[in-house]
C-alpha cells in the first residue's frame, strides 16, 4: 500500500505541474482540438512517469566493492515505538479510498439520472446521431451518439441541434469518460477538477467553432447563448449547450486564431517534469538490501575507530568492479559474507537507548591469501555503531577465495555498507 500511495502522490505532482502549465500558458489559445489531445495524452503520460527511474546508483558505493548491504535491527526506545505504532499508512489509504468511492457514487448517480431522462423521450434516428426529444423543459445535452433536447428548443432554436451534433461529431463524451479516470484517482487534487472544467469549456469552444463554420450568423448565435445562459449543467459526463462560462465562449468566437507554432510551447514543460522526476527518485544501491533478523551474539569488544574520507586503495589492490575473477566467501559469492556479518552483529545497547541508527560504510581488502585486512570506516554514523560494524568485519577469520587477475591472486578492495535500524 505504501508503494501505491507513493505512486499516486508522484503522479499527482506531475499532473499538477502539467495542468498548471496548461492553465497559465495554453488555456487562452484557439488550438481547441490540439489542447484536448494534449490534456488527455499528457495526463496519461503523468501516470506513467512515476514508473520510470532516472537514477538508481549511489555514487559513494560505486567506487569499489560488492554493492551488498547487511542490516542490524533493534528495538526502538519506548517513545519511538509509540510514534511508529500509529498506522499512518492505513489511515491515509482509508481516506483515499473513501474519497474515491464518494466521487464514483456521484458520477454513477449523475449518469443514472441522464439515462433515465433519455428513456423518457421520443427517439428519432438522424444521419449522424440519435435525437431524443423530451416533452420536459430541460437543457439540451449530448452523450455518446445521442442528443437530448426539449421539443420547444428543437422547434424554435435549430442552432442548438447543430451545436449538439458538433459535440457528437468530435466525440467529446469520450474525452469526459477518459478524464473521469483521472478524476477518480486524483480526486484530492484541486487542479484536476479545475482542468476538467477547462476541458468541458474546450468542448464548447470547438462546438461553437463548428456551428459558425456551418454558416449560422455569429451575432444571432451569440444572442441565443445569452438567452439560454440561465440554468445549470445536470450531468457530469454530458456535453450541454448551456454553460456558465458564457463570456469566455463569446470572447473566444471573436478572438483571432492562435499561431500553430504555439503547439511547441508544451516542450517547455519537459525540463520541469524531468527535474521533478529527478527529485522524486532517491538514489538506491544496485543490489537489494538484505533485511534479516539479528541473532543475539556476544557483547561487542572495544575497537579503535578510524574514519577516513577516501578508500585509500593500495597500488596493488584492484577495485571489485574491474577484477576479472571476483573473490567469493564460503560456498557462495560476496552476498554470503553479508549474511555472515549480519548473523554476528549485535546492536549496541547505548546506541539503542539513544535511538541511534543509520548506515555505516566500511572499506576493507580481501588479501591474496583470502583474509580480510585494512578494515576502515569511510562513513561514520555513531561511535558505538561504527565500532560494532568494525568489530564484526575485522573479526572474520574464515578465508575467502581470493580474486584473480591475469591468472594470479590479487588484493581486492571493497566498499561495504552496514545498516543499523531500530524497529
How are the elements arranged and paired?
Blueprint: H1 2-26, H2 32-48, E1 70-74, H3 78-85, H4 88-120, E2 122-125, E3 130-134, E4 141-143, E5 146-150, H5 151-156, H6 158-170, H7 172-185, H8 190-213, H9 218-227, E6 239-240, H10 246-254, H11 270-280, E7 317-319, E8 328-329, H12 334-344, H13 349-353, E9 358-366, E10 372-379, H14 383-394, E11 400-401, E12 403-405, E13 408-422
Parallel strand pairs: 1-13, 3-5, 7-13
Antiparallel strand pairs: 2-3, 4-5, 4-6, 8-11, 9-10, 9-13, 12-13
Helix pairs in contact: 1-2, 1-8, 1-11, 2-8, 6-8, 7-8
Structure commentary:
The protein is an alpha+beta fold. It folds into two domains: about 1-55 and about 85-115 and about 160-280, no CATH class; about 55-85 and about 290-423, no CATH class. About 45% of the residues lie in helices and about 15% in strands. It is built from 14 helices and 13 strands. The protein has helices spanning about 1-25, 30-50, 80-85, 90-120, 150-155, 160-170, 170-185, 190-215, 220-225, 245-255, 270-280, 335-345, 350-355, 385-395; strands at about 70-75, 120-125, 130-135, 140-145, 145-150, 240, 315-320, 330, 360-365, 370-380, 400, 405, 410-420. Strands 1, 7, 9, 10, 12 and 13 form a six-stranded mixed sheet that branches. A five-stranded mixed sheet has the order 2-3-5-4-6, with helices on both faces. Strands 8-11 form a two-stranded antiparallel ribbon. The protein is elongated. The model is unreliable at about 55-70, about 80-85 and about 285-315 (pLDDT under 50).
Amino acid at each position: 500500500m505504501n508503494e501505491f500511495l507513493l505512486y499516486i502522490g508522484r503522479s499527482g505532482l506531475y499532473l499538477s505541474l502539467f495542468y498548471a502549465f496548461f492553465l497559465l500558458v495554453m488555456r487562452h489559445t484557439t488550438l481547441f482540438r490540439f489542447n484536448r489531445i494534449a490534456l488527455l495524452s499528457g495526463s496519461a503520460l503523468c501516470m506513467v512517469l512515476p514508473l520510470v527511474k532516472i537514477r538508481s546508483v549511489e555514487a559513494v558505493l560505486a567506487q569499489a566493492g560488492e554493492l551488498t548491504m547487511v542490516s542490524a535491527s533493534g528495538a526502538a526506545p519506548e517513545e519511538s515505538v509509540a510514534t511508529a505504532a500509529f498506522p499512518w499508512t492505513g489511515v491515509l489509504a482509508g481516506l483515499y479510498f473513501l474519497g474515491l468511492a464518494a466521487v464514483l457514487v456521484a458520477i454513477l448517480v449523475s449518469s443514472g439520472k441522464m439515462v433515465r431522462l433519455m428513456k423518457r423521450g421520443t427517439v428519432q434516428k438522424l444521419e449522424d446521431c440519435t435525437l431524443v426529444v423530451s416533452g420536459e423543459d430541460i437543457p439540451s445535452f449530448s452523450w455518446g451518439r445521442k442528443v437530448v433536447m426539449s421539443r420547444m428548443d428543437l422547434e424554435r432554436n435549430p442552432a442548438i441541434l447543430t451545436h449538439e451534433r458538433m459535440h457528437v461529431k468530435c466525440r467529446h463524451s469520450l474525452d469526459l469518460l477518459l478524464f473521469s479516470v483521472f478524476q477518480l484517482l486524483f480526486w484530492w487534487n484541486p487542479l484536476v477538477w479545475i482542468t476538467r472544467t477547462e476541458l468541458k469549456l474546450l468542448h464548447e469552444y470547438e462546438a461553437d467553432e463548428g456551428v459558425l463554420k456551418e454558416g449560422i450568423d455569429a451575432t444571432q448565435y451569440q444572442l441565443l447563448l445569452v438567452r439560454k445562459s440561465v440554468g445549470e449543467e445536470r450531468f457530469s459526463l454530458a456535453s450541454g449547450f448551456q454553460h456558465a462560462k458564457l463570456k469566455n465562449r463569446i470572447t473566444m468566437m471573436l478572438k483571432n486564431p492562435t499561431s500553430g507554432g504555439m503547439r511547441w510551447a508544451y516542450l517547455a514543460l519537459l525540463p520541469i517534469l524531468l527535474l521533478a522526476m529527478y527529485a522524486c527518485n532517491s538514489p538506491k544501491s544496485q543490489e537489494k538490501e538484505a533485511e534479516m533478523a539479528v541473532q543475539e551474539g556476544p557483547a561487542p569488544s572495544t575497537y579503535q575507530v578510524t574514519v577516513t574520507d577516501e578508500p585509500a586503495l593500495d597500488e596493488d589492490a584492484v577495485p571489485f568492479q574491474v577484477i576479472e575473477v571476483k573473490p567469493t566467501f564460503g560456498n557462495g559469492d560476496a552476498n554470503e559474507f553479508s549474511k555472515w556479518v549480519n548473523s554476528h552483529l549485535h546492536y549496541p545497547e547505548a546506541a539503542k537507548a539513544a535511538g541511534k541508527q543509520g548506515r555505516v560504510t566500511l572499506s576493507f581488502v580481501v588479501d591474496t591469501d583470502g583474509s580480510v585486512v585494512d578494515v576502515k570506516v569511510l562513513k561514520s554514523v555513531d561511535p558505538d555503531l561504527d565500532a560494532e560494524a568494525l568489530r564484526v568485519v575485522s573479526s572474520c577469520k574464515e578465508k575467502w577465495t581470493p580474486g584473480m587477475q591475469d591468472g594470479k591472486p590479487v588484493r581486492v578492495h571493497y566498499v561495504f555498507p552496514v545498516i543499523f535500524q531500530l524497529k
